[in-house]
Structures are given as C-alpha cells and as structure tokens.
Amino acid sequence: MSFEVLVFLVIVALAFDFMNGFHDAANSIATVVSTGVLKPTQAVAMAAAFNFIALFIFQVKVATTVGKGIVDPGIIDHYVVFGALIGAITWNIITWYYGIPSSSSHALIGGLIGAAVAKVGTGSLVASGITKVVAFILISPLVGFLLASTLMVVFSHLVFRSTPSRVDRWSRRLQLVSASMYSLGHGGNDAQKTAGIIWMLLIAYGATGAKEPLPMWVLVSCYITIALGTLFGGWRIVKTMGQRLTKLKPFHGCCAETGGAMTLFMATGLGIPVSTTHTITGAIVGVGSAQRFNAVRWGVAGNLVWAWVLTIPCSAFVAAIAWWVGRQIL
User: Fold this and answer.
1) What pLDDT digit, counting tens, does each position of 202-223 carry?
2) Which of 308, 299, 172, 181 shows the shortest CA–CA distance to 246?
3) Rounded CA separation 288/270 (Å)
4) Residue 56 neighbours by CB distance under 10 Å
C-alpha cells in the first residue's frame, strides 16, 4: 500500500464518518424537534457539540472492538478496508434516500465481514466479536424499550398530581438535558467505529504497531467529522423517527432520550458497537407502548426491523463486490 492510497482511504473513512453523523442525526434530534422543544437548527447544533464532547468522556473500547474484534487483524489490507467502507457508504445512501433509519454501525460491521470473507473466507471472522454485535441488534432496542417504558411509568406516577402545564414546562427543560446526553452517547459509540477502521489501516501500513495505542489525531478527526455530519442533519429520517412511530410530547421525549442514553453509555463502557438507531427506536416504542398498546404504529416499527435484519447481509454483499473492484483499481 502506497502512502497516497493510505491518505485516500483515510479520507474515505472520514467521509463515512461524516455520513454516519448525517444519517444518524435523526437519532439525536428527532424527539426534541418533534416535541417542539428546539428548532431543527438549534437541535443539530446542540447534538453536534455533544458528539464532539464525547471525545473527552469515553475510553476507546469500541474502537478496539471494531479494529481487532470483528475480523482477524492479520488479514486486513487496503482492499478489505476499501470494500468495507464502500459497502457501508452505499447502504447508508440507499437508506437515507428512502428515509429508513437503519444502522450505520451495522453497515460498517457488515462491510468488514463481506470484504474479509471475499478475501480469505469465513475463517477470518472473530466469532466472539460478531456474536456480541449480532446479539445487541436485539438487546440494545430491548434495553432502550425497557428503560424508557419504566421511566415513563415511574415519572407518570411522580407527576400524577401536577397540572399538565407544569409537567410540560419541566419536561421541556429536562428534555434539553436528555437530548444532550443521548447525543453524547451517540458520539461516544459511533465516532469510535470509524476510528477503529483508520486504526486498522495504520497498522496495515506499518505507521503504528498492533499493540500501540490509537493515535490521538485519529480520535480527534473522527469526533470532529461526525459532529460536522450531525450538524448538516439527515432530515429525511427525522419524520420517521419523531412522528410516524408514535405521537410524542416533551414528557415522552425526555423518557425516551434518557432510556436511550443510559443504554448507549452502558454499551460504550462495555466496548460494544451498538446501533444508536436501534436504541432510540426501542426507546420511542417503549414510551408509546407505556401509554397504550395501540399508541405505537406497529406496522412502521415492523418495517424498520426488516431494514435492521437486512443491513449486515446487504452491506456485506456490496462490500464483497467493492473488494473485487478495489483489487482492480487500487
């Protein structure tokens, strides 16, 4: 791999990171925008700021999992990374165009798997890491659902005797905090995934050793880039997340964001690359179902689940093709 190819692939990785923020901005802002607490421009500015602040809060456990825990680091070269990134970017563009809140994280994981299998077969896969990722396709939305619905029930009992206007006023204030915490969790988990990819590249190039720490410039670049992506915002997805799943008020939005943020903090602390999309969707469905079962548009939720199921295999398929193309042109 030449230095020029290394620079090109780092730029492509940062392009994915930008698209991750752009695609997943809805995860952070949909509830706070849909409830009318913040205007869209205010919401994305706040989300972007907390995406970057996450750099100073979380350890690099997620980056380590992506860089070393999904496929065997020994088989990583520039062709594999190129295939993985093109597979993930392609799936993100498709789902953004149709307004489908799919997982950028799982698109990247699927891309890595597809490119690695195309190169050397399934023996290159790290079963323990992939098992954790696949398990959390179910676990993260379920935990978000349980935490958000529990918070909804508990807080409903606490404010039972308060007037609706007082509850709404305090919920609007608290939602600024809960939305900020969710954006913090989003930045902490998602920026590290791209950092893990660039770390792979640097190890393959020989710029750093496999046992050396992740270079700080990589982390700073990834956090700045995802924050910029969030700042531009993927508006097509906001409507699906904030309006079509269930009707949200500030009280509901606060519970959903708090439950989602708690889930992301836990996963990032454990070093598990989870989907922020899955997490907030589970939390939104949780607050809706805590009101009444038919408050949730289950048909919309079912369509989202299909997108989640297809993300890893579809991005893996595109990545395998991109790996072959990369072999011809890089």
Assistant:
1) 988 888 887 888 999 999 999 9
2) 299
3) 28
4) 8
Radius of gyration of the chain (CA): 19
**Pair 234, 23: CB distance under 8 Å:** yes
120 with 75: CB under 8 angstroms?
yes
Tokens of 27: 């995860």
- Rounded to two decimals, the pTM is 0.85
- What contacts 96, CB < 8 A, 6 or more positions away? 19, 22, 23, 234, 236, 237
List all residues 6 or more positions away from 114 whose beta carbon is below 8 Å from its beta carbon.
83, 84, 87, 315, 316, 317, 318, 319, 320, 323
**Per-residue pLDDT tens over the stretch 127-165:** 988 998 888 888 988 999 999 999 988 988 888 888 888
- Per 3-state DSSP, what percentage of the chain is helix, strand, and coil (rounded to 5)? 85, 0, 15
What's the number of CA atoms in the CB half-sphere (13 Å) around residue 252?
Answer: 28
Give 152's contacts (C-beta < 8 A, 6+ positions apart): 252, 255, 286, 287, 290, 291
Taking the C-alpha atoms of residue 185 and residue 168, their distance in angstroms, rounded to an integer, is: 25
CA contacts within 13 A on the Cβ side of 245: 33
Angstrom distances, CA of residue 162 to CA of 150, 166, 178: 19, 7, 21
